[in-house]
Amino acid sequence: MSFLKKTKQLSATRAVRWLAPLLALGGLAAFRLPAADDNPVRVLAERVAAFYNSARPEKVYLHLDRPVYGTGETIWFNAYLVDALRHRPDSLSKVLYVELLSPQRQLVARRTLRVAPGGLANGDIELDDSLRAGTYLLRAYTNWMRNQGPNFFYQRQLQVWPAAPKEVDASGVTPAASRPGAALKTTAGKVDVQFFPEGGALVAGLPAVVGFKAQAATGRGATVNGQVLDAQNKPVGAAFKSQHLGMGRLSFTPAAGQRYHARVTLADGTAADYPLPAVQPSGYALHVVDSGDAFEVEARYVGATPPGPALLLTEVRGYIIGLAPRPLTSDGKPVSWHVLKSKYPNGIVHFTLFNAQSQPQAERLAFVQNGPAALRITLTADKAAYGVHDRVLMKAQVTDASGQPVTTRFSVAVAEQGAATLDATAENIASNLLLTSDLAGYVEAPGYYFGTPTPETTRALDDLLLTQGWRRFVWKDLLAGPAPVPQYNIEQALALTGVVTGMGHAPIPNSQLTFIESKPVKQFLTGTTDAQGRFSFVGFDGKDTAVVTLQGRRTGGGANVTVRPDLGAPTAGIPLPGLPNIATPTPAVADYLKRSRQQRVTERQNMPADDVRNVRLADIAVTGQRERSIIPANDTRRLIPGVVANTIINFADMPGAQSGIPIFSLLQGRVAGLTISGSPPNQSIQIRNSGTPQIILDGQRVEADVINSINSNDVEAVEVFKGTEAAIFGASGGVIAIYTKRANKNYKAPTGPGTANPSLVTVKLPGYYQTREFYRPRYGAPVLNAPESDPRRLTIYWNPSLQTDSKGEAEFTFYTADGSGNYQATAEGLTLTGEPGRGTGTIYVTPKR
């Protein structure tokens, strides 16, 4: 028998002891092993251990102050960085990147954060008033996490509603004419229905359970029902229908030589046919049933030759149990295992059926939940009701499953209950760490599976795992040999990294690099790339933005190379789904929008008279404008559709742009009132001496630094808004809007020579983000620091760092704001042993008399 080759005993034993403390080796005699050291469970465990020992995967979770936001509001977050196996505070990476991507997956904001001891980091992202409403993607990752791809990033689809339009009346109503047109568009298209045989394949003559998932073009689950038909359109098995978010299951026994399809009826009454996977003439089937405290696992085989004994291997985040082999026959008779849940930690259990040659034949995911959450957080206020601007004392009690106090750190938010519960099934710390962080693809409403347990939620979670893909490792790759060398390093501090390539994108090893830093300190360094053409410069203090010029040359001195600095993880992907029912929001959403807009009116009434944000849309003529620009008025690259500048510079016909002269240098002397001083990248920009203008790149506000990384040859046009015509953007210093060719939907990428980046590049490396302090007034204090009108909106308290004492207790105080009604406090945290916890509490604020 050709079992996997044995690896070195000493290192493997240590790895297995750490990663697989539940390793079971009983019942292996059926494999007729020549020696104990060659038993297949140990060899497979060694491969899993080697993977985790090399990959050392990380996870990150963000606790947000609210699940849903409106334009003009601020996202407050606290990050928990942990190791992916035990969920203990991570000790690897010390730099965390948090990014907000637009509905078109363009970078809107990035926060580079220093990870504090305990794997914690906190920050904020302010959503601009003029930001387009839609579904945004909030993601977080470390440089080390990039080695396994974006599927391992923290990713959360975040609804941003048009809560702060440019014009609202006193009641908080938005005039229809000022609503962002792009936000009212919804995605339409055919519903996609996919079928997933349990275990991986349909095998002729073996009973099959098939999971299915119906997904609308918006990416959300669709309600369907249907019937499986054979090639002669005869019904097979019972009719089926989706149970939760378009997911469900059906069962039948496929016949040899048949092709099956499903006739599916959608919610609107239309019908369509979808194929099922092809039927295999022979192979294995794996069936798993959740019986409460255990899993009942059944395996079958059909084929021309006896398959020999089959081994069932189970794995939960590196903890491995190999169950006793069972002698399969070729006539489809079942063998079974009784798998107790109590032997595993909570999380996704990965069942794999191996044949006698240690080759994986069938796989299945299930979920282990041993009792309630291990960490319990109870929040209790000192009174049942409070007045406006009243002091609130809230106590937190943290205990483990047995009721014993726990010393830990946690974060807490207090928000208006309608906003805090607007997305009641949004993810939480438990659903992320135990479920979604180990699954491929987007999981809709993950919090649903971790609410009050019912037979319906248990069945829905099992349906999800029948249809959602495993992503931690693939057995084929794991058994093939050593893992590839990591491309991205563990960052203990800020670093400038990248690769030097030839004109054909092939990495150039031992390339000579010149490093010149001009800010915040001046220094000159030289170095060479490694065998993969990569370079890395470290030693930045992170206090200020570093301005660095890199020049690359070949070993022999040639300059025909391309220096490609690493500017972060790619943002490519399909557009995100639109907001649900944005034209006719639900009562809960409508109430939230009304509250937010009413607060916005109050804020504007208290702004200084000369604040440019007091300019109303009615003060600016934006209708009936002539087509002045080569960029259409309704172009999707515009931040505000229909708003066109009086000044336009056509880069497409400008010789200097084709030669790669920096963008701001090209504007110098071509726009009246525009003053640009200094040399790239240290240029100062002003319009009519009114301060630094806003920079808008393809409809997104960016820092001027971003423009330095763009080749002018990639720019189609630039518009300059001056004076009052820039007021609609909320800009006192004017606006420079840059439109790239690549963002044009009709753009075709150039080919041929001359299109590569130069060997000389200038990079601005941002320092660590300085998180703003959440506003906390103290009404009635000896030192008065509270304004007449409270600027807090839906979130009235946020604290990312609270610590319980030896009794598991902590307390915090805050003051209520101007609003009345119910408010919800939400706390989330993680113990040093990796146990997640969440708790909520409520307070009531009486209306002001």
Automatic annotation (TrEMBL):
Is Signal one of the keywords UniProt gives this record?
yes
Per its UniProt record, what Pfam families does this chain match?
Answer: Plug
> What start and end residues bound the annotated signal peptide?
1-35
Which intervals hold domain TonB-dependent receptor plug? 665-734
Q: Kindly give the InterPro entries that the UniProt entry links to this protein.
A: Plug_dom, Plug_dom_sf, TonB-dep_rcpt-like
> Which terms are listed as keywords in the entry?
Receptor, Signal
Q: Which SUPFAM superfamilies match?
A: Porins
Task: Write down the PANTHER family for this protein, in alphabetical order.
Answer: HEMOGLOBIN AND HEMOGLOBIN-HAPTOGLOBIN-BINDING PROTEIN 1-RELATED, TONB-DEPENDENT OUTER MEMBRANE RECEPTOR
Protein known as: TonB-dependent receptor plug domain-containing protein
